[in-house]
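Field: COMPLEX_INPUT
Field: COMPONENT_COUNT = two
Field: RESIDUE_TOTAL = 669
Field: MODE = joint
Values follow.
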Amino acid sequence: MYFAGVDIGSTMTKVVLMDTKGTILSAIKGPTGPEHRQLANEVMRMALEQAKVPLEQVACIVATGYGRLNVPFADRQITELSCHARGVSSLFPDVRTAIDIGGQDAKCMKINKGKLVDFVMNDKCAAGTGRFLEVIAATLGIKLEDLGKLSLKSNKKAPISNVCTIFAQQEIVTRLSEGEKAEDIIAGLHDALASRVTALAHRLKIEPDVVLTGGVAKNSGMVKAMRENLGCEVLVPPDPLITGAMGAAILAKETYMKATAEGETLPTKPRRLEKATFFQQ
Amino acid sequence: MTDKSQGLSKAQEIYLNRPQRAKELKAAGKKIIGYPCAYVPLEMLTALDLVPYRIYGSIKEPVTEADRALPTSFCPFIRSCLDRSLKGKDDFLDGLVTAHSCDPQHRTAHVWESCVEYSYTHFIDMPGTVRADSLEYFKGQLGDFKKTLEAFTGKKLSPDKVKAAIKSHNQQRALVKEIYQLTRPIPPLVSGTEILQVIKALMSLPVTEGNELLTQVISEVKNRQDGPAKKPARLLVWSSTSDDTDIMQIFESGANVVMDESCGGFRPFRAEVKLTDDPIDGLADYYLNEITCARTFRQATIGEIKKDYAKDLQSRFGYFKGIVEDWKINGAILFLVRYCDPFAFEMPDLKDYLERIGVPSIYIEYDYTIGALAPIRTRVEAFLETIS
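Field: COMPLEX_OUTPUT
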């Protein structure tokens, strides 16, 4: 018997498939694209193929993320906040504070016994998110995945005062024209972004150590900037992108086990991966 | 079998087409007076046979015209109100009465009076604090309001007419209170979404027609078999304005909204106007002291040399304690329109107070557009997951 978590974020769709012991059999990441449902099917199919698990043997599927309502084969929807909290606590059982920086939002979560107890999220704006770094990388003509490494070469962070993506972009152009080095500018940007996320996190009571997840946690320069701004150890899971999908899979497993223990049968959606459209009733 | 032409169905119909009745009344010779805020004493309009019509913005309509007349980085609600007016959506209004409910409304009012043509405009300078001398000042303001109303209508605003109007509006407040009693059972007999439709319908009708609608709704709800289902949480919504059912439905997808403190809800109806010898005194007291909007600051410590924080919280928010107990509330949504300073300043203290009385709350800010709905849904659902 198997369980799956499907996390449809603004940029990436992630699927984690696990067995009854909680062992991860496959974890697949693919682009979300404009049509949430169709790519969810595709990423799910890849996860099943890799694990060699037939869809009918998946006992419970939980969908999460912004596209959670667009997964026709998911049995339950749970917000990414609860799923991240569950995923983080399975990896780091003692951690009380987690920060996830994804493509379009940053969220800070307080966790107790695997459960989300409080949270804050950024405003509907790219400032303080992965999109900010994507735009900046494009402006500088640098690959997104190279930002971190490059920024670590900096000895002198360029001061960047704006965290608004558009204004920061203008500020970078000015700094470049003044002859600032790209690595100093990127280090300055990471600091600006980290200070904004830290200010958000301080609306909750931060208890060290802090776990950082989401695509931005793959950027070593950002992890360093978060350590400096938070003034405490920042832990990063081996694959920080799949924490939400993993939490969703764990919650799927726990939901199923609890229902079975109580003699209930969970209602499930048809196990079909065919294409669906938004407008189909 | 429910009669679709009255009660909740009727309220929903009016909610979806608020100007319709006002337009009919205008065609029959009545004068329709728009107002964008709960601080305009409607009794004085009703007393002169004027029809009060509450102006709302729309989260479904992008602000375009108002951006030519106003700065863009402030209250999107009042910008939306003016925007709709500039687009001619409220062109049946004969007059506009505004109040200094907050700085954006104050300054927008003056722009509004200049760029939309009305037969009558009046601005009420509402004091911001509850003090004996602000009450005296406010009475003077209502005296000025009386004068311009008399000049506009050519009729005398006699104390008897005002008293009769106060009685009708007080009856409306009592009927609204009765509806909110019907959210006390588990599950509630009426949903937050339905109440919002009823309240916005009332604010589109003359008071007597509103009271008739309320009477129908109450009798329908008391006898209904198809009320809301029981949800895991019973919520209080505290908001400057939450006036769209799309948002209320997000709140209610995983909870029952059983009480609110909002301008599309209970706030304008919570207390009642005292019938004083000079009825203007009772109105002044009610509109300054009794409306529980964050725009009025209620300082507990006037005359004391040191602030007692607990006492201050009690004085400003103490009335929530009984509500939380009586309505069995186990969570609160503090729902703010972006840039709403009065509510944003009040929010941290209220959050603290609610925590002290054991009510978890979530603070959500939105920009008064439908673009905000998905982020609102995520925050609300995550909050409900934390309290369930």
